[in-house]
Amino acid sequence: MMGRQAIAGVALFLAGTAMPIAAQEAGNPDQRAARTLAQMTPEEKIGLLHGPMPSLLPAAKRLAGVPVGAGVITGVPRLGIPNLTETDASLGVSNLNDLRKGDVATAMPSGMAQAASWNSELLRTGGAMIGSEARAKGFNVMLVGGVNLVRDPRAGRNFEYLGEDPLLAGTLVGAQIAGVQSNGIIGTIKHFAINDLETGRNVHSVVMDEAAMRESDLLAFQIGMEKGRPHSVMCAYNRVNGDFACQNPFLLNDVLRRDWRFPGFVMSDWGAVHSSEAILHGLDQQSGEQIDGKPWFSTLMVKAVEEGRIPQKAVDTAALRILRSMFASGIVDRPVTAGAAIDYDAHGLVAQRAAEEGIVLLRNEAGVLPLAATARRIVVIGGHADIGTLSGGGSSQVRPVGGFALEERQVGAGVASFSKRSYGGTAPLAALKAVRPDAQITFVDGRDPAAAADAARAADMAIVFGEKWSTEAADQKDLSLDGNGNALIAAVAKANPKTIVVLETGNPVAMPWQKDVAAIVAAWFPGQRGGEAIARVLTGAVNPSGRLPVTFPASVDQLPNPVLPGGDAAPADAATRATYGLMASAKPFDVHFPEGSDAGYRWFAKRNASPLYAFGYGLSYTSFRYDGLKVTGGQRPTIRFTVTNTGQRAGADVPQVYLTRPGKAKRLVGWSKPMLQPGETRAVSVTVDPRVIADFDVRQQRWIVPSETVAIEVARSATDPVLKGTARLTRTTLKP
Ligand code: BGC
After folding, report:
1. Best substitution site from 53, 55, 88 to test ligand 1's pocket, by max atoms within 8 Å of Cβ?
2. Where does the Fibronectin type III-like domain lie (predicted)?
3. With 60 as the cut, is the pLDDT of residue 3 above it?
4. Which atom in ligand 1 lies closest to the alpha carbon of residue 88?
5. What does pTM read for this prediction?
6. What would the CATH number be for the domain defined by 624-734?
7. Is domain 355-539 classified as CATH 3.40.50.620?
8. Does domain 29-87+118-329 have CATH number 3.20.20.300?
């Protein structure tokens, strides 16, 4: 079902690092973990259940020889059990506090950008690359796998995640995790679950019925876990139906362990533990323990066991699960040591390919793009395009190779370490000059819209950057561009009809100037080699093939929650804890998501609302035709058709298949990403996973697909069907 675009250069480092781990001792991971546990003292067992955030420790108290990352858990050296050395995150090895002086890593484009590729091979390759850097820097746990669904385009962490659809996000995160873990290290999937907003993230309670959860956010996790087999799960900050996610028996014991048979361990998010009893409800490890304020899983756990409030068996079970993952991942047999050489050039190319495939061409009037050779005088405006590209803030932020060119502290963003607006990676201006040496390319910083308009008037063409920064720990007020972005674009567009807008955003944005500009390119936060990726798409060296993994609403009035939940409940900045934006003093509040399981395009379909740009949308420099639809019904319907490149350029397309049951919102059931030469035709086949279209029956605890006739669409986006057919479904019931 997935795209198969060859990615040159990648085999190089895969061959170097992703070797299968040979078991050096007899037995499977379960047996080896049990044998090890039997030899451990009570203190050693407790030792595995908790650990600090090293950056918050005085230097003298940090474990010698252990790299400073997000967390560390002390191992049992006498039994060959290593420390768990943990680093963030999904976009590369982050170094938020800069304690590994000057250390840099390859910065992948944002999760949203990667999701826009709709190419799981790309996510796997990126995962293998960032995991190899984690390993080379001495980390054996990488806190990747962010797959919270986009329910609100103002949510601060959407840029880290993989869009609004459970099948797309789940498939992609599974590939990313598998890539990371191919290095013989532990990956996570996070933040379990329904941690879809940042406002009051550690106090709010999401109120949602089980069916809605199972059919949306939990389905994304389920698919991701099946495909990626992460060795650990990170539970979230928020509450779900009243219980904190890290002590939520429904999420951790019923769903994760009983239904999904997860054999690994659950680690808490940093500061998400609220009791020692959490261990009875499925939590195995307290991470970043200083942030919790209480040593729930160390001294207080010892006390609870002594007092008989927690059975020793619960401690044993948690320790066993952690050990099992250590054996299963390979970190015991092939211990990680810091210092391996990193080929940053090859890795930069991986980041560049990801950025190129994730760029979405949203508008291209009269074929203004790719840039014509006749456009000789080009002015580039704004976005600090002369020094780099924008990245998202928070724990996922990677200090890119070359360092940041600019870090601007944001006033009022709440969390000191997260509130830097940072630019790095390669600069679009230099990259454009490199691919268009024949052109006269100038730069105007865009602070003064009138000056920018003057420069645009004097040029053949204007390329203006629009930005919207996002960060962990804060949601966004609205969908407007930062600063004078909208005014700047409007002024430039008025001065020159050949105005091309390049968006660097973490989220969908509103575009009041949409009809006045010739072209719009969504470049997201494009990472390490964002400059080249943008330049190569603009000039046509790369034919854009990204498709939106998220709906761009026309305005917030179309959203299920026009007013952001909790916006008025958040405390003033002074009351916000300095670390990680945890609002200790905020009053708990409930979050309702009126869309239930119908997040994103499904909500728009149900309400008959026209978005600004639909989920799945994206243009190409060539054109594609779909033909020959053949649908077979039954329990696992199959949809077959062909795609032909009818244009003059080679390019990749993303034909999407949607299924609509009577009275229900449409659902994405599959897609493909064929790369086609002009005139080339490719056959595509999509088989439907019944869970993606089923209702979850809570009483029977079963997925149920009734016998009925459903509509099938082969489409260019969620709102642009091309081929239409029907399928007769056969009743199916499945265990969760
Ligand atoms: C984030 C996690 C991250 C952890 C460790 C938390 O604030 O929610 O995604 O892995 O910190 O840095």
Report:
1. 88
2. 653-718
3. no
4. 10
5. 0.95
6. 2.60.40.10
7. no
8. yes
